[in-house]
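Hi C.,

You asked whether I'd gotten around to modeling the 362-residue construct. I have! Everything is below, sequence then structure, no commentary in between.
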Amino acid sequence: MKQFVKLSLTTMVVAVVACVLVLVPGRTFAADLSISGSTMLVPLEQVWAREYMKDHPGVHVSVAATGSGAGISKASGGDATIGASDVYLTRDLKKRYPSLVSIPIALEDTQVIYNLPGLSKDRVIRMDGPTLSAIYRGKIRFWDDRAIRAMNPGVNFPHMRIRVFHRADASGTTFVFTDYLNQTSKDWFDSIGRDRSPNWPVGQGYIGSAALVHAVGITPGAIGYAGLGWVRKSHLKSMALKNRDGRYVVESAASVQAAALAVLHDPSFPEDFNRSMVWKLHGKDVYPDANFEFWMVNTELDGESMKHVRDLIIWALSEGQYSKYTVNSGFAPLPFAPLRPRLKKILNRLLPGNTFEIQTGG
């Protein structure tokens, strides 16, 4: 389905004319937009930046994988034009960064990846929250543990030590991963909780998704977590996670969109997206560890910068949602029908008084 966004700006009075930035010898740009934050979003953002600059030669867009925590901080402090985050603006984050507005930009998931030699390439390992929690708390240490075998009848697991890997930096991917553990395991809830940088009981930490995925790929017996974009690049296997209705669901664009549609049709889900969509959703095809991806924008940006930021956001929410960008990069496009009213309210907080319409084609 094609998606379009039409934007008609009312007359704007811009107090400061943007300076022309010289970024490379012999090349000048009218605007220099920097996106910093989520490592999970990087594969999609790099494609978006390349395609956007082709159609907007006067704009330069750079992408930096600094982690969601750093992205939020940089956007608030003016060190990045846009902060990319896998984490919604929680109550605490809103208090800390009151000038930020979060815009849902795509759909992603957190997958459990593993390196287990000897298993059939067609075999998909099943996993539930309590068992995964026990692994990451050091209570289950070998792949042939009874709890793992019970979910996977017919699989001949080796008696191999589980090498537990996790992120060492403040990470939105970790936030989503620990959210699943937090909501499915009382032991995890009572002892560790959901966090971008929890106090890990066991395991080896790595900075960034790329480093963690690489470590899992070269370590027999390893287990870790990452977004689909990174999983596809590494060609690692990922597990089917148990959802709230007891189904073991493999990640796909369809199962991630099913989760988003379920939450957007829930009238209790807040319009500013400051609540988790992990696990709580019903549906046989709903992936239980799906998440909205966000761009954070500082409402105190100067008028000229905000104009360029809005243009980029509108492009990302229209042309940027095509499958050739989203699905091919390991993401799912946003379901616009139930999302449209929420997006209009959010975007009206950026340069209030301008009007736009989000439209979906046939």
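If it helps when you're writing up: The chain is about 30% helix and 25% strand.

Thanks,
B.
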